[in-house]
Automatic annotation (TrEMBL):
Pfam families: HSP33. The lineage of its organism: Bacteria, Pseudomonadati, Pseudomonadota, Betaproteobacteria, Burkholderiales. Keywords: Chaperone, Cytoplasm, Disulfide bond, Redox-active center, Zinc. It comes from Mesosutterella porci. Signal peptide: none annotated. InterPro entries: Heat_shock_Hsp33, Heat_shock_Hsp33_C, Heat_shock_Hsp33_N, Hsp33_helix_hairpin_bin_dom_sf. It comes from the Bacteria. This is Hsp33 family molecular chaperone HslO.
């Protein structure tokens, strides 16, 4: 099992695209939680789309794709770093069953209160407030691909088409984007405005099974063998969790010493399990005491 993301470009169509197939990283995500099939599909399609978006932009921070739902899925979240390290998780409402065959609308927008956002997260914590967030309309769309393509086309002014598929074995996607006509590219002798329509028609023939079973380069060969797209060096997405003992310690400090000590008295230790990777960090009374002594020492040092 391995994961691959391919970038390609059609000079005559003035279009670019990406194709991704996540298998090993997707299996790692699913090992952590037993999601119902409709939730697997939703989260997998989000993960494939986020990986393609992150790889298509030049930004030093992470791309965060979130859906806050009012149906069986309370939250679905994917984070992709610039090097394509990724992680994903879905949180379900325990008292709301997941209907068999449910789509995005039934899962996250059952009562019209679902929200979706794409955030470009500044890597410097001091500049985190400068992170850019775009709101994606899911009220008038019925799938992840439709919602994200509409957002990119209308809000970001980048004409975009998306085809996504996911199941228990893989999460895959294909993306086409019309490149802005800059620098006189449209005046090039070999530029053909009809090629954009042609590559879209060819992409529309892709099936969910082809997305899931074929490696990206083989998929592109089958779809566009007559168009001969230019291919960049393939990239390798992978599962990567950003949790650490230091980060968890920071969360405990944020609780405040009084509440942390109350938790210790109640449970004997403070145990925090990462939702993304399943790793558990345990802090006993000595650990917690050291956390707050360290903060006090830093505060004293900053005053001096």
């Amino acid at each position: 099992m391995f994961d691959t993301l391919e970038h390609f470009y059609f000079p005559r169509a003035n279009a670019r695209g990406s194709a991704v197939r996540l298998q090993e990283s997707w299996q790692t995500i699913l090992e952590r939680r037993a999601y119902p099939a409709p939730v697997q599909k939703l989260l997998g399609e989000m993960t494939a789309a986020a990986a393609m978006f992150a790889s298509s932009i030049t930004f030093p921070g992470s791309v965060l794709l979130q859906i806050m739902g009012d149906g069986p899925v309370r939250l679905a979240m994917v984070e992709v770093k610039p090097d394509l390290g990724l992680r994903a998780v879905a949180r379900l409402r325990e008292d709301v069953p997941v209907p068999e065959g449910a789509g995005m609308r039934e899962l996250v927008n059952a009562a019209g209160g679902g929200r979706c956002a794409i955030t470009l997260v500044q890597p410097d914590p001091a500049r985190r407030a400068e992170s850019y967030q775009g709101i994606v309309d899911i009220a008038s769309t019925s799938s992840v691909a439709e919602a994200l393509a509409a957002y990119m086309t209308h809000s970001e002014q980048i004409e975009t088409r998306l085809w996504l598929s996911a199941d228990a074995t893989a999460a895959s996607g294909l993306m086409l984007q019309k490149v802005a006509d800059e620098g006189g590219r449209g005046e090039a002798p070999d530029y053909d405005p009809e090629d954009w329509n042609r590559v879209q028609k060819l992409a529309e023939t892709v099936t969910a099974d082809e997305l899931l079973r074929l490696e990206p380069r083989e998929l592109l060969r089958r779809l566009f063998w007559q168009e001969n797209p230019s291919l960049a060096k393939p990239r390798s997405p992978r599962f990567e969790c950003g949790c650490s003992r230091d980060r968890v310690g920071g969360m405990i400090r944020a609780l405040g010493e009084k509440q942390a000590l109350e938790l210790l008295a109640e449970k004997g230790s403070i145990d925090v399990t990462c939702e993304f990777c399943g790793k558990t960090y345990s802090f006993d009374s000595i650990d917690v005491q050291a956390l707050f002594e360290e903060r006090a020492a830093k505060a004293t040092g900053s005053i001096n």
